[in-house]
């Protein structure tokens, strides 16, 4: 823990942490030492972790990287972080993210962008760590924690993992409790870990997961010992290769990476099968209706009265308006406007309802593939390697949204998705592959992920 605390202090230029909690970390580490000396101790005893600043932490500022929550100190602890502390983990601090987890490059944070520890060959340009869990992915990649919590609404665990050469899993919807995690789009949000290898990911998820009476969407099912699945044989597993993910204009480099992944799994004994997920191309536009719709509703609570920032106004409505205008950043305001628009009486049927129907069709595509015997699906994680700060999305936000083309389907269908590092781009940046599983069969993903890693 001391070594990590020192490393965090030395690596301020990456801007991974919004709040550092060194005293708390050393206290927790001492308590862990005492438990270990007594022959006690949990699965994560003494392991120093970073916590995405979307998880409420009792007595420690929680901001969702937004000005509107600056100074908000929860008096309660999220279920997932409570589970980690129960198993002996140590908290190093709160990790930076895109504001309210909206973004794919960690450039929308009120506390400034996170910088990836990676660089392109022969270039000093600052590279983005992905988003929204960019603080988590960069901190894990730069050894500023052993593992980190993250969240994934449309790719925010998997895309940053792919951009930084780390491992991340979005578990099945309902696997982890969402209680005490700042809500973005409640029907899509899931907690999960980012780590440096598949085994760590399995160990950390086991602690994070489990039923919770405080989240009615969390599922009452036993949590398997995921670590046992790491290294297990994948012989005979049927791997679907969805033809619709071979997008027009898919870069040759990404196509070659995907082919290499197929070869590795075949060499490990898996059976490769071409499959079709016909509604794939509608997933991204439908996601960018459903997610902002739910966000506009969830973010209505930030009124300047209950949490964080409060501007003065001539009356209560003026106070709300001033607080929200100043408190929310540009991307968050854009999402709220899209969300309220697609939910409004005149446009609900044309946009929101239609997007929900598309969502059912996407889910059915996966169901049919799994019913036909497919155990897991292999796809690229991202359409490109990480890009430089300021390179994408400033003129046209859709350019940034396109990053999520391979990841949003998984959230729309509520499935588990694991991203593992699978190689480097021609300019020396990490590339990841994604494995999509059957509901609640994260174990299969860990076995396959280990075979690729
Ligand atoms: N990049 C996507 C978005 O901006 C996904 C974010 C997330 O998974 N939290 O909505």
Automatic annotation (TrEMBL):
NCBIfam families: gatA. Heterotrimer of A, B and C subunits. HAMAP family: GatA. Its EC number is 6.3.5.7. The active site is at 52 (charge relay system), 132 (charge relay system), 156 (acyl-ester intermediate). Pfam families: Amidase. PANTHER family: GLUTAMYL-TRNA(GLN) AMIDOTRANSFERASE SUBUNIT A, TRANSAMIDASE. Hydrolyzes indole-3-acetamide (IAM) into indole-3-acetic acid (IAA). Allows the formation of correctly charged Gln-tRNA(Gln) through the transamidation of misacylated Glu-tRNA(Gln) in organisms which lack glutaminyl-tRNA synthetase. The reaction takes place in the presence of glutamine and ATP through an activated gamma-phospho-Glu-tRNA(Gln). Belongs to the amidase family. GatA subfamily. Keywords: ATP-binding, Ligase, Nucleotide-binding, Protein biosynthesis, Transferase. It is an enzyme of class 6 (ligase). This is Glutamyl-tRNA(Gln) amidotransferase subunit A. It catalyses: L-glutamyl-tRNA(Gln) + L-glutamine + ATP + H2O = L-glutaminyl-tRNA(Gln) + L-glutamate + ADP + phosphate + H(+). One of its GO terms (cellular component) is glutamyl-tRNA(Gln) amidotransferase complex. It comes from Rhodoblastus acidophilus. The lineage of its organism: Bacteria, Pseudomonadati, Pseudomonadota, Alphaproteobacteria, Hyphomicrobiales. The keyword Membrane does not apply. GO terms for biological process: translation. One of its GO terms (molecular function) is transferase activity. SUPFAM superfamilies: Amidase signature (AS) enzymes (SSF75304). PROSITE patterns: AMIDASES (PS00571). Residues 1-445 form the Amidase domain.
